[in-house]
Amino acid sequence: MKIFNSYTNKLEEFVPIHKGNVNMYVCGPTVYNYIHIGNARPVIFFDTVRNYFEFRNYKVKFVSNFTDVDDKIIAKAIELKQTEKEITDKFISAFLSDVEKVNSSTDYIKPRVTDYMDHIIEYIEILVDKGFAYVVDGDVYFRVANVKDYGILSNRKIDDLLVGARIEINIKKENPLDFTLWKKTDLGIQFDSPFGKGRPGWHTECVAMIDDVFGEQIDIHGGGSGLMFPHHENEIAQSKVLNNHSLAKYWMHNGFINIGESKMSKSEGEVVFVKDLDVNPNGFRLYTLSTHYRSPINYTDEALDVYVKEWEKILRTYSAIFLKLDLNDKLYANAKIEPDLLVIFKEFLTAMDNDFNTANAITALQNLNKKANQLLRSKVEDEVLLSALKLFDDFFIVLGLKTDKKPLSMEDKETYNLWNKARADKDFDSADKYRLLLQEKGII
Ligand SMILES: [Zn+2]
């Protein structure tokens, strides 16, 4: 398997730190609002990455945090006259239901900043003790000057960064590039620390939580490309000085979803919230994954609709095969491999092995759909159809596409057979009655 590593800017062979295991962390949301479809992209993509690793028999430890301490949360709490906890609890549960809505797994480790406060403070103390950070008037800053290749992830030069950083004048900092690890606050929720009352900086939260949950360098750190600088750069800087490694062996970044000309962000007007999406989640998932994860998506309703229809086509074929096999009691028979199906399976694996090229994997799924339709029409043995069905199931598992197909009950099979018999006997009244029954149950 190959992964494009943002850290080295190269396509690299994936070699896990511990054989057969994948430890991965994806930056999670700051929970003060509902997520929009741009936020759903990493939720869908990294879930697919996890699915594929598991499909290839890796044991995956998947961690994604909740940033539940932040100025925006404090502002919202003041605005709504609620506690920070009320705000964050509400949006954490809203987030998880959106994750479920787009068919991503909610079964992962979800550290919250507020639960890790002791560890985060301890982490900052170590940085201060070792001279990698300094305290000024209740604030703590990270000393960037100690990091040899600061800017390596985002390919930025210190001099260029300095030009940008000088705009923000902070006389407390030794160097304009130094970033906040602890911020003295007098507004909203505050936490006690040896530096005084305040709250941690975002960049130190993720790295301290990774340190506590994994305790060592991880395989993959993921997130949106907007996080590369300064967030991920600063995570790396802390890990470099303290642990002498780049925190993750592979860094992966997904592109934005644009609406019109602007990238979607919570502060802009033109957002589509996941909670308001009124389309089949499988269609939305196919749409999101039909563009390579490193490329931007220019969202339009029309383009989304194409993939909603694509899913309907695939589901029709899948359902027809499922029903035929079910009625013939062949759902659990031994499948017979058809050479063309094997070719399609290899296409799929090749695509996913090549930096999770889900766009090409979806092409393989469409090829499977065409082939399965041909097989249905050419009346092949049920055992061959079964191998097509199993291939669909494999692709669905990896891409996170869900169907609710279940074998028919005895009663439903009986109805189906009666419908067939009535049609054969040209007993149209009975046939209509049975057809309606079957349609009501979504069987045909
Ligand atoms: Zn993070």
Helices and strands in order, then pairings?
Elements: E1 2-5, E2 10-13, E3 21-26, H1 37-55, E4 59-64, H2 71-80, H3 84-101, H4 117-129, E5 133-136, E6 139-142, H5 158-165, E7 180-184, E8 198-200, H6 202-214, E9 218-224, H7 228-243, E10 248-254, E11 257-259, E12 262-263, H8 281-289, E13 297-299, H9 301-327, H10 339-353, H11 358-377, H12 382-399, H13 410-424, H14 428-440
The chain binds zinc ion.
Zinc ion binds next to loops.
Given helix and strand content, the structural type is: alpha/beta
Number of helices: 14
Radius of gyration: 26 Å
Bound molecules: zinc ion
Q: Main beta sheet: strand number and arrangement?
A: 4 strands, parallel
Order of helices and strands: EEEHEHHHEEHEEHEHEEEHEHHHHHH
Question: What is the architecture of the largest domain at the second tier of CATH?
Answer: 3-Layer(aba) Sandwich
User: CA-to-CA gap between the ends?
Assistant: 41 Å
pLDDT under 50 segments (min length 5)?
none
CATH-derived topology of the largest domain: Rossmann fold
Mean pLDDT: 93
CATH superfamily of the largest domain: HUPs
Globally, the shape reads elongated
With strands numbered from the N-terminus, the spatial order across the biggest sheet is 4-3-9-10
What is the CATH C-level name of the largest domain? Alpha Beta
**DSSP strand (E) fraction?**
5-15%
Taken together, the total number of domains comes to: 3
Helix content: 40-55%
What is the number of strand segments?
A: 13
